[in-house]
Amino acid sequence: MLATAVPLVGALLLAQPGSEAPVLQPPSSPRPALTWGAPTACLMLPPTQHVPSGAWRAQCDDDAQRCRVAPVRELDADGVETDRPLSRATPCTVSLDDETAARVMAYRMEPARVDAPPGWYRDERGRVMQFNFDLNRRVWLGGAWTPMSHDGQVMSRMRADFGIAVEVPSRGGKTLHRLRFLETELHLGVHSLDLALARYDFSIQREDPLLRVTSFLGKPRRHDLYLNMGLWMEALHLEQLKRDGQVARFLSLGAFHAAFDLWHSRDLVSYVRVRAGAGIESDLVHRFNALAPSAALEGDLTLDRDGFHHFRMSAEVETLLLAPRVEGRPRRPERLRVQAGYEVILLAINDQPLSLLVDGRGVRRDDIAGVPERWEWSASAGLRFSLWAPARRSAPIAARE
Amino acid sequence: MLGLVLLLASAAPDTAVDACQALDSRGEPYPICFDPGDGLVLGTRARISSAGMARAVRTGVHIRAGRSSRSKGSPWFNNHRLMTAELWDGAQRGFTVTAYDGTLRRHLEEGFILLPTARPVRVPFPFDVTVAARLGHLERRFWEGAGWTLETGRVGLLLDPLRSETERVWLGVGPSATHAVRRGRDGEQHTVAPFTELLLDAGLESADGLSALRASALAGWSLGIERGVYFRARADLGLERVVLAVADQPVVLQVAGAYAHRDAGLARRSEWTASVGLALRALGTRR
To answer: Which residues pair with A383 in a beta bridge?
Structure first.
């Protein structure tokens, strides 16, 4: 590749009248692509029908005596350059001195596709678009139809949901911190509100195994067992619901769980884990506090490289301890929640993904005074619009043209 | 209205940085351009309604911040209004306080919808997307008796067909979701509009920032958590013009009008108001 940090003035020499200008080769098929992040120079070549300005970006290989070149501006539908500069392309960081420019003039100039950053795709006109989305870093806003059933009755409901998700990996990539803010689900029809101010958890990949197990059946093999124990915590989780004319309001002031990853992906983004711990919960209707131990098995899987398909599931059991007796409910009320859902990105509007969400849920609880213990089943289908949603950290360079 | 819009659009040609400074008799420069979306606002005005005329004071912090998205590589034009408050006296005394009111518009030179086929397809989408959010809007009307109205949150997803490359022009229209509580003598009443209302937010400012027009409207249905479906509509129009600057801080003449249809106060009245007054916009940026 060309050396950097030489004067810029030589860049224009390649197209000077009177000099033997390099000839642009006819495009090959498949057309090669410039390499994202590689040293790039801006060149002036003789004007062509499609690139009348003669302004090109080039990545040159001294060994092959070849430069791959692409226009510095986007093209229109006829393939003629517009006045719109390329966005998100590797900037021209290499300048050519006189000697280098004279040498490059003899190189083969091969038309190429413009490079795009990881997670972004550039079409044949040079326009860039995001095709890889991180739904674990987003601000979402959604609505869904969520019919509910219990005791053979089916009731129609609507749901509005909102939330902010943030993921921060540690420097070495061995720990992934997850934060959720203002996760909100509001059901209309049969009213319920579920709002959590903040949640935090992390997954960790320990470097040292908890147990080193060696098997001697056949060739000796090591089977290391890691204890990837993390933390899950929540602050100010409000649940308000109305069933059979009875209103319940529970405010979890805080909860701490130990979380153990049964499995996680190499980048720690996808996981299946169990967690268990306790929180302090306030019953806002009967005005007392209780201890709320709970345990859960849950998973969050990103199913494809580009972050379009997601599967989430959880099963959680919770009970209330140290609560005073309340007429119409047991001394130690219990809650059991199960759910599984799938989210797929349908399209992206101005690089902001719009996704379809379907899920099924079941709740069995006896913590609402005057409401008998029973299963409530619900299903939902709805849309979510996500802001932010940058390309995933593991996003690849687009290979498609 | 069209004439007014044309007047604003032509009020000042595109000015360079130097054109925003004039020289006094001693040759010292002083600013003649200001940013209407930035500054600490403190003003007073006459508020006219069917109940008569009242005096009003209002205050708030306006912040205009443009930024380039790191994740998307495109510019955002953001307007934030923090702790906006208005207090008025007269026969129908009351006040409003808004913790946050803002719009965040992401501009793309060529908007599109991506269809994620094997080879991604790009469908033209000639709109910028704007997020309009308002949090914590409290209204108290003493003359209505005990009670208040609190709009806990409103968020709108607006489409802007103008797709202006500057922060001076915008027109966003789209659905919005709202949650509001009315607390009166009979207890609390919660209503939710799950994107069943249409929100409009528009603005036009002269290049020198001396004149500005802003309009907003909202219409649609909200659902009572307990029962009921409520239709409401409201529209606000405001025009302001810098008339002088004191110590280089602009003093603005403001003329505004508003109409609320089945949305005013605890009783969901229909009413109109008009106002005219002066406001000091201090510590703002200059163009």
So the answer is: A143, A356
pLDDT of residue B10: 47
User: What residue numbers bound the domain in which A219 lies?
Assistant: 138-388
pLDDT in tens, A150-183: 988 899 888 999 999 999 999 888 999 999 999 9
Nearest to B194 among A127, A160, A346 (CB): A160
pLDDT band at residue A401 under the 50/70/90 scheme? low
Give the contacts of B195 (CB within 8 A, at least 6 positions apart).
A143, A160, B157, B175, B176, B177
If asked whether residues A101 and A163 sit together in one domain, one would say: no
**Residue A21's pLDDT is what?**
66
pLDDT for residue B96? 97
| Interchain proximity B195–A160, CB inside 8 Å | yes
Compute CA distances A342 → A146, A201, A357, whole Å.
Answer: 14, 22, 6
Q: What is the pLDDT of residues A203-227, one digit of tens each?
A: 999 888 888 889 998 898 988 888 8
Contact (Cβ atoms closer than 8 angstroms) between residue B169 and residue B189 = no
Cβ contact A401–B131 (<8 Å): no
| CA dist., res. B98 & res. B137, Å (int) | 4
* Contact flag B112-A129 (C-beta cutoff 8 Å): yes
Q: Which of A190, A20, A36, A189 is nearest to A101 (CA)?
A: A20
Q: Could you tell me if A273 and A262 are in contact, meaning their C-beta atoms sit under 8 angstroms apart?
A: yes
**Residue B171: closest CA among B220, B123, B217:** B217
Which residue in B112, B116, B194 is closest to A350 by CB distance? B112
Other beta carbons within 10 Å of A267? 15
Instruction: Tell me which residue in B70, B111, B194 faces A158 most closely, judged by beta carbons.
Output: B194
3-state secondary structure B168-234: CEEEEEEEEEEEEEEEECCEEEEEEEEEEEEEEEEEEECCCCCEEEEEEEEEEEEEECCCCEEEEEE
Q: What share of chain B is helix, strand, coil (3-state, %, to 5)?
A: 5, 65, 30
Q: Which residues of A touch B111 (CB under 8 A)?
A: 349-350
Give me the amino acid identity at A189: G
Q: Which CATH architecture has domain B19-282?
A: Beta Barrel (2.40)
Residue B193 Cα, gap to closest chain A Cα (Å): 10
Q: How many domains does chain A have?
A: 2
Q: Which of A73, A101, A124 is the last residue of a domain?
A: A124
* CA torsion angle B180 B182 B187 B193 (round to 10): -40
Q: What is the pLDDT of residues A62-115, one digit of tens each?
A: 899 999 999 999 999 899 999 988 988 988 888 777 888 888 888 899 999 999
Domain for residue A23, yes or no?
yes
Which CATH number belongs to the domain containing residue A366 in this structure? Answer: 2.40.160
Q: Are residues A203 and A176 in contact, defined by beta-carbon separation less than 8 angstroms?
A: yes
